[in-house]
């Protein structure tokens, strides 16, 4: 197979465990609805030749963790998920701060992106956590 990344057989891209220490899904039903909706998402990149089975646990400051949320990312593919689309085993509550731990059977790259249109100066924050 062609190796466009020029990685050797012993090198991999990504990690098997990631942590995002901060997350928040606002409840837009309480106030005026913005044309620009808030987003709290993660992009998962699997560059390996093996499908990634990803498990996401959600942690709170005042209650027990929830999860795992199970996500499949095919080999050599990416997937983007919105935290408010994670509903099984239960939806993540609105207006509640949370953290997440993302574990995979193969190394993956995780990027966290937040769009917060509630502020006067709109902000899109992206970060890769290691």
Q: What is the terminal separation in angstroms? A: 29 Å
Number of distinct helices = 0
What is the string of SSEs from the N terminus onward?
EEEEEEE
Total strands: 7
Strand content: over 45%
Biggest sheet features: 7 strands, antiparallel
What CATH architecture label applies?
A: Sandwich
Shape: elongated
Structural class: mainly beta
Rounded average pLDDT: 83
Find the CATH superfamily: TM1070-like
Helical content stands at: under 10%
Q: Please compute the radius of gyration using only Cα atoms.
A: 16 Å
Q: Would you state the CATH class?
A: Mainly Beta
Outline the low-pLDDT stretches: none
Give an overview of the whole structure.
The protein has strands spanning 15-24, 39-46, 52-59, 66-73, 77-82, 97-116, 123-128. It has 130 residues and is mainly β. The chain has one domain (15-28, 36-128): TM1070-like (Hypothetical Protein Tm1070, Chain: A, Sandwich). Strands 1, 2, 3, 4, 5, 6 and 7 form a 7-stranded antiparallel β-sheet that branches. Strand 3 and strand 4 form a beta hairpin.
In terms of topology, how is this protein built?
Elements: E1 15-24, E2 39-46, E3 52-59, E4 66-73, E5 77-82, E6 97-116, E7 123-128
List keywords for this structure.
7-stranded antiparallel sheet, Hypothetical Protein Tm1070, Chain: A, 130 residues, elongated, mainly beta, 51% strand
């Amino acid at each position: 197979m062609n190796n466009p990344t020029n990685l050797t057989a012993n090198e991999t891209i990504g990690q098997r465990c990631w942590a995002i220490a901060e997350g928040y899904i606002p409840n837009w039903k309480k106030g005026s609805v913005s044309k620009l909706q808030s987003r709290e998402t993660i992009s998962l990149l699997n560059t390996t030749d093996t499908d990634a089975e990803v498990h996401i646990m959600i942690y709170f400051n005042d209650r027990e963790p929830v999860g795992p949320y199970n996500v499949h990312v095919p080999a050599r593919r990416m997937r983007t998920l919105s935290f408010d689309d994670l509903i099984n085993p239960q939806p993540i509550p609105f207006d509640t701060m949370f953290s997440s731990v993302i574990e995979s059977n193969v190394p993956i790259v995780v990027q966290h992106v937040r769009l917060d249109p509630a502020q006067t100066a709109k902000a899109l924050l992206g970060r890769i956590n290691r």
